[in-house]
Structures are given as C-alpha cells and as structure tokens.
Fold each of these.
Amino acid sequence: MPRHVLITGASRGIGQAIARAFFEAGDNITTVDRRGVGPGFDDPRVQAVAGDVQSTDQVNAAFDAAEARFGPVEVLVANAGVVADGLLARGTEADFAKVVDTNLGGAWRSARRAGRSMAARRRGAIILIGSVVGAIGGIGQANYAAAKAGIVGLARAAARELGPRGVTANVIAPGFIETDMTAGLAERTRQAYLARIPAGRFGTAGDVAAAAVFVAGAPYVNGAVIPVDGGLGMGH
C-alpha cells in the first residue's frame, strides 16, 4: 500500500530529490513550501501545498489540505531550511531568529502536527534533516549549527515520547552535498571541504534521498542520527 509522505521544502535540491525517491517507491507525495510550487514533476500521486513553516497556523492548514486528499500523513520529512551565514561577532539577532525559527522551529511545528495523528494511529516515521555542521560546527554558521544541533535533541525527545506508540523519529545529517546552495561557494572553500572527506567526493541529493527512504521503512531505527557525509563528521 502506498504511504502518504509529506515533505517540507521540496521545491529544489535535497527536498526535491527526496520527493522523487518516495514517489518512485510508489508513495503518495505532498510537498509544502511557501509558494506551493511543488517538486517539479506532475502526477496524480503528487500535490503541492503552500505553507510557511514559521507559522503554526500555516503548518496546520497545510497538513489539513494534504490529508484531505491522501489521508493521514504516515511519513514526515522536515527539510525546509534557510541560511544566513556570518561571523559570530557580526551576526544579527534578526538572522539568528530567522534561521533558528525556520530550521528548528519549523521542524518542531511539523513534527508536533504529524506526531499527533501518527500516535493516534500507532504508526509513522518522522525524519528531520539535520547537518554535519550541527556536530562539528562551521565558521560563520553559529546560527545554522545551533539550529541543526537542536534538531538532534528534538528528534530524540520525540523518539522517547512517541516510540511506545509505534512512531519513529530520526535525523539524517548531510555533509557537503552538491546543490544550488553549495554551488555558490568559492572554489577554495569547496576544495578545503573536499580534502577533509574520506570518500573523496561531494555527496548528491540522491544520496540523502536514499537514506530517507531507508529510514522511513526501518521501524526499529529510532532516535538515530544517520550521517550522509562521506565520513566528514566521523567521531562526532
């Protein structure tokens, strides 16, 4: 039976690849982003819903719209996120608040809404997209690292609360993934990262998507952080 998979931030990059992977696995897909533009491919098993993860009302409305068509959400992938890099000493409160409220607050709002119906039905999978930066830090990324580190605590609290009701909560922590966002980095920065990756290459969005599909179908994996980083974060 196809599952109903809801993915936030799926209009491009990692989220788009995750939507495609679950679609190819035979699932029904709802994508949620601020403009409701969807994952870039049309099919009766795919719907796009507008919603800003910074708003509880919009998150709840997006879930309501999603479930009206495909039924209860059985797999949540909370992927929506933003960056606002800058050195710690120069960072602004506005940038910190935006990054933390979108990346961590948005995941919390989405997991809270999904967890209610999953717990009532006694099954479901919550997957939060973290980052290797949440474990090893990153220069100029204090706000982003703080939010992604918080993702781990959020998932593990959810795992303990919802695990007895058949619901899993896990984190996938990508490393340096080739996306539009990372393509804009200076070549010197790219090469510095590459030198630290034992796999000898940057990851792809498909690498992350494969991990998401695996975790969604692994009911005894719970409260875990699954690195998809080529070994960049080993030991952390």
Amino acid sequence: MSTIQHYAAPRSLEEAADLLRQGNVTVLAGGTDLMPQSKAGKLKFQPVLMNIRNVEGLRGLTETGGVLRIGATTTITDLYDSDLVKSRLAALWQACDHFASDQIRNAGTIGGNICNASPAGDTLVPLLVLNARVVLAAKPNGALTQRVVPLREFFVGPGKVRREPSELVAAVEIDMPPPGFVSAFFKFGTRPALDISTISIGFGAVYEGGKLRDVRVAFGAVAPTPIRAPHVEAALEGKPLNEETIVAACDAAGQDARPISDVRASDWYRREMVRNMLERMLNNVRNG
C-alpha cells in the first residue's frame, strides 16, 4: 500500500535538494522502473513523492571544453536523436537503439537507468566504456554542493549505488573521445530491443596503425553490477589487432565475467556468449 502523503514538483535544483535534505523522499523521473517495482512490492514509496521532470537544467546535452554533460532527466530518445551521440559515442547510441520500446525510451531517463543499477542496464555498459562520471547534488549545510563519482565506483550491488538519501543525480559527464576512437555495443536477448539482456558487451579504443590503445571493455549481466573487464583490456592494450590477440582477449574474458544461472540463461551459456560475441566485435573493428 502506498504511503505517499505529499507530492512535490520542484522547478529548481536548489528546491529539489532542499526537499531531499528533509528526508523521506522518493524521486520520480520517467517512472519506467519505479512504478513496476512498486506494484511488484519491491519498492515502498516514502511519504514524499518528488517529481523532478520539470527541474530546470536537468534535461539536455551540452558540450563545454571537450566535456559532454548529460542532464539526469535526459530521455533515452533524446540520446538516440542526438547527432553528437551518434557520431562520437557510437556505443551509447547503439545501446539506445536496443533499449526497450519507443514508449519506454520516450519516458525513461539516463539518471533513472543509472540509479536503478541493474546488472543488465543497457546504457550502463557503454557509459563504463566511455569513462562516465556521475554528478551528485545536495545541500548538506544549506548551500548547494556537487560531488563527482566515477561510474565504475558508483555501483555497489544489484539496485545499490553510492548515493546518499539527501543526494540527487544531476548529470552524467563524459570526456569526449580523442580522434581515432571507435566504440561498439552488443546486447544479446531473445528479443534484443525489448528483453532484459542475457549478456551485453561494450568496447572502445583508439585504433591506429592496426594497433589498439586506451582500450576499454565492459560487460553487463555477468556479475552483480555492470563491470569493466581489466584482463581483456590488458590482453588488447598496445597490441596489433590480429587473430592471436583476439584469441588471447577472448580467453581473458573468462577471468572477468562472473555470471550466474537464472531464468534467462545458465552461467556456462553466458560465458560462451561473452567469448563468441567479443570475438565477433573485435573482428568487426579489425575489418572496419
């Protein structure tokens, strides 16, 4: 049963932070995760339901000094429709292309997807590849402050993040990739555009002269949180992208992926899918 006693719709980040400081607040943006979870009994509403969709400055993309700032209430459709995301952040754009249905994309937000912290969250894997940072806003002493947490440190478990109850995710920041940077995203599921992923892979690197540098690889749905794959990255860093390197990287994937068996797939199947799809992705990069 709902315990909501008050509905708030702040217009400014200051006002939203004030409400959070008072405590007992449930934050609502798109509601695409919040509402199903509440109906399933997995989440209990706090006395105050705060809708942040109209908070000024929380929606949209801005690039300043080589840093892209994505407001927390920016929708998946906003990202998909962005020429900048499509041309410079291919892995993120591809993830948006495989994100649920049009209706969910129109409502679901980047901040909500991050805070939901699903091990299979579609945008989380490419954001890890892009070394994204989470910007958190709060008013601990009456003045608005912000702190920045690397996304790879933000997740602590399924549905759990390093966000204090008094903090609001205000934005995601990404340093724009350098020239020669290529990235890609792969998601496997029965119906990839609608189902929760069985596994997902993100890849990014500067590819020049047949060699890779600044390699970033991330996996989804193979651990309690979305993860970077340091053993795979080490197997690729500075190496020529030939058959030997690709085999070594796929072998290393077994050291990074730690899947479980559930209703969507067995742990063995997930490991095989990671290996096979990583091989396909790397060959696609090698072949242009």
Amino acid sequence: MDMMVIGIAGGTGSGKTTLTDRLKKHFGDNVSVVYHDNYYKAHEGMTYEELSRLNYDHPDAFDTDLLIEHLTKLRAGQAVDCPVYDFTVHNRSDKTIHIEPSRVLIIEGILIFQNKTLRDMMDIKIFVDTDADVRLLRRISRDVKERGRSLDSVVTQYLATVKPMHEQFVEPSKRSADIIVLEGGRNEVALDMIIQRVERHLQGDKEA
C-alpha cells in the first residue's frame, strides 16, 4: 500500500485540529490520524503541581523517537498502539489507541516539523498560520472548558513557556512547510486544494 503522510503543524490554537477533522470527515476510513500530543513523555512519581510546572512546549517534552518508530511500522503495513495523554492530569494515561495502516496518514502537532527525521518522512507538510491573539483566546477557551484549567494557570503557562517556545521553535519550523494555510480548516480554498491533492493520491492507488 502506498501511504501518503501529511504533516499538519502550527501554533497552539491555530486551527490544526479543525483542518485535520475536516480531512478525516471527508475521506473517512482512508485517513488515520496520529497526534504528537499523545507522545508527551510520561512522568512517574511527580505531583500535579510539579507536573504543571514542566515545559510542555519544548521539543524535549515529546517522545518523538517513539512516534518515528510507530510511523515506520505504519508505513510498513503494521498496526500500532499509540499512547494517550491526559491533559487534565498532565501525564500519560494507561490507555492506548489502536491505529491501522491507511492510504493517508495525518500527523498533527505543534513541533512535528522541528525534528528532521520525522519531517523527512512526510510527503506533504502543512503549516497552519493564525494570529497570536486569536490562538491565545482559543487556547484559553479550550483549556478552561475541556481540560479543567483555571484562567490564571492558562495565562501563566502561556507567558512562561507557550509564547517563548512558539517563537523559538514553532514559528521557525514554518520554513519547512510546503503549504502555509491561514486560519486552518476555516480556509475553504486551501482545504479544497488539499482535498484535490489527496484525491489524486487515492485515485492513483485505484489505477495501480
């Protein structure tokens, strides 16, 4: 099976997940999704307060080597069980997600273009670019409503690590992108172009 690997990167709250969800909805079972967020490193024996002070926006926070290993297996036609990260406790859960190989695999995350080995495994690299104030408001809304965080904790984390790490690692990785999409899944023109590219890949599989 000829697998197309699509990387979707961008800052927190940029619209990566909206774009990913719309592609997944359009192509159904032809698309599998792997989230870099699920590959945050596990931390044993630390309190919630200690965990909350860690820098989750630095490349070292992720077990990217495991993600590369899983992607290698998927491209070889082998299923994998990827970890699941629980944002409400700042740590991995004991659950896993079973992912079968598919004709299109989407990898989503803020720092997936930062690692060259991972980046070189992608056929299409998409960077979702959205204004910082919009991203911050989306992050506040998401973290308070979905992850049980307080407004003060979200703002403190944003100023302490999210913003500086975005400027140091995420924003520069935009130079590695093949396509820069403004506003993510809300950009209908860009979405249509990406869909057409994926459809050509899937049509090629049928013809072969």
Amino acid sequence: MFSGIVEETAKVVRLVKEKDNLHITLECSFVNELKIDQSISHNGVCLTVVDIKDNTYTVTAIQETLIKSNLGVLKPGDKVNLERSTKLDGRLDGHMVQGHVDLTAKCVNVREAEGSWYYTFEYEPKNEEHITVEKGSVSVNGVSLTVVNSKENTFEVAIIPYTYDITNFHTFQPGTVVNIEFDIIGKYVAKILKQMQG
C-alpha cells in the first residue's frame, strides 16, 4: 500500500528484455536502505526489488504490467517517480494507492497559472470503474492528486511547485503517456452500483 507521496525520482540506467519480461535497473539516493523482496512504487506501479548492486537496484515488470503501464516505453536516462510502501505507524498524507495501475492516459495540455501548473489527461475507459469525480483522488504516475474539471474521459490536476520539482511532472508535455490508478473507493462504489442494477 502506498500514499501517492513521491519520495524522489530515480534515473533509469539499464533496461534488459528477457522473454516477455523487462528488467529495469535504476539509481536513487536510498539504494543502501533497500532490500531484496521490497515493494516500491515506480510511476505508480508496485514492483519488487530483485537485485541490488553498488548504487543501483533492479526490478522486473511482467508482460501484464507492461501492457497496462508506461514502463514499456522507458528509456535509459528517464526519470521515474519512487515511493516506498507506507509504514503502518505513519500518516497517510495522500490517499490509499495500491500500486495497481488501471490504464495509461495521455497528457493533452499543460498550462502555467501564476506559479502552479494545470495538466489535462485523456484516457479510454475500459469499464465503469474507470472514472474520476470532481475533487476526488487519482494517482498519476504514482502521485496522489485531486481531480478538477472531471469529464467522461478527461480530467485535470493542479500541481504546486514542490510537486513539479520533485516528481517527473516537470518532464510532461502534450503526448506524454502516464500511468493512472483510479481511486479504490470509487472503484468499489462503481462495482456495487453495477451489481445492484444488474
């Protein structure tokens, strides 16, 4: 379980394809605190540390993950948002994020607004659970955000300077593909309503 509060961005240093899997090696400041089998959110995708060498660590993304996320389009040098799992005795500063990406969306607009930034994302819903609600929560590349201007297949988020600087949002431009995890409570409500109607 994660909170959607990104700790830092890691740099992709190596990508190795093995059958349908992709081994991703990254560099970050807290490699010496990691251990094998630890779960870390990468752009909102929960992946397990499988190797640690020097100042890098490696995780493996399987085909299902690559299909549903933007990890398959990573290149060496790209920045990836990182968050270690939430401690049970800590504060939940964002919202409940599982690290299970629902789908990808495309950034279609970026606008600056007197020190903050507004990003508009467009996506193709796969089912009735893929919705946003005004002032509800959504995870974009693992960042817990509040939805504004929610529509059927688009939504907007506002980014403060701190989030802009510490995450990979500052690299986004129209056409950038991002990972989306819809709010878990919203998904449960949508599923219950469908069962009640059907």
